[in-house]
Amino acid sequence: MKTMLALILLTAPAWAETPMTAAEFEARVVGRTMTYADSGKVWGREQYLAGRRVIWAFEGQECKHGYWWEETGGAICFAYDDGGAPDCWLLYDRGDSIAAQALDDPDGTPLSVVEESAEPLICPGPQVGV
Question: What pTM, to 2 d.p., does this model score?
Answer without folding.
Answer: 0.81
